[in-house]
Amino acid sequence: AQRVTQPEKLLSVFKGAPVELKCNYSYSGSPELFWYVQYSRQRLQLLLRHISRESIKGFTADLNKGETSFHLKKPFAQEEDSAMYYCALSSTSGSRLTFGEGTQLTVNP
Amino acid sequence: NAGVTQTPKFQVLKTGQSMTLQCAQDMNHNSMYWYRQDPGMGLRLIYYSASEGTTDKGEVPNGYNVSRLNKREFSLRLESAAPSQTSVYFCASTIIESNTEAFFGQGTRLTVV
To answer: How does pLDDT run across A21-72, given as a tens digit for each residue?
Structure first.
């Protein structure tokens, strides 16, 4: 079975501070990991995926298979980053997305 | 390009009433999903349809039924609503059932009193 855990339900930082949203997963095969974001009053949308190895809106995430983690990081948080963030997993062999519990990030001025 | 459209956006039901949530996508995606979003529990999969003509249970299917009417449309039915079904419901679609970006509807906020 596949499982995604986001240990922090709420995370609050000040503008300009670094931010890290934690994500751990369990899956026996080779996973594909994603971060989705939901801004206030907007629909859920893809932020980034690990296979792309790209930085979106200053966010990066590295897949650590040894620690089974896919933490989301940004060196300098902005107020517009305030949102709900979901980590998600699917398998390369084809399975539906499994989401974590979500982390509500608040960036204070 | 509308993407994924859900109706209605809001609904209040009395316990025991039935209703159908509608979802349509115009991206020619094969796979469609219904999730519920509850505080502290993330998004939990109710049912999904990997392709037209197939449906399968997700994590929390009890109390729900689905219909994949055609490639575009995937509806979720509550036969006898219960207060435990108060939630925000999201429909999503992907090109295929793996490893691709999921596109979400705007959500339906359902309250069962």
So the answer is: 999 999 887 788 999 999 998 899 999 988 777 888 999 998 898 999 999 9
Residue B31 to residue B97: CA distance in whole angstroms: 6
pLDDT at A26: 92
Residues B8, B9, B12, B13: what is their CA dihedral angle, to the nearest 10 degrees? 40
User: Looking at beta carbons, which residues of chain A come within 8 Å of B41?
Assistant: 101
Q: Can you tell me the distance from the alpha carbon of B63 to that of B78, in angstroms, rounded to the nearest whole number?
A: 6
SS (H, E, C) B27-74: CCCCEEEEEEEECCCEEEEEEEECCCCCCEECCCCCCEEEEECCCCEE
Q: Is A98 in the B-facing interface, judged by CB distances under 8 Å? A: yes
Cβ-contact A32, A91 below 8 angstroms:
yes
Terminal CA-CA length for chain B: 36
- Whether the CB-CB separation of B58 and B46 falls below 8 Å is answered with yes
Q: Do A100 and B42 touch (CB under 8 A)?
A: yes
Collapsing DSSP to helix, strand or coil, A79 comes out as helix
Chain centroid offset of residue B69 CA: 13
- Res A94 pLDDT > 80: no
Rounded distance between C-alpha atoms, residue A2 and residue B67, angstroms? 26
Per-residue pLDDT of B23-32, as tens digits, reads 999 999 988 9
Name every residue whose Cβ is closer than 8 Å to that of residue B49 and which is 6 or more positions away in sequence.
B31, B32, B33, B55, B56, B66, B68, B74
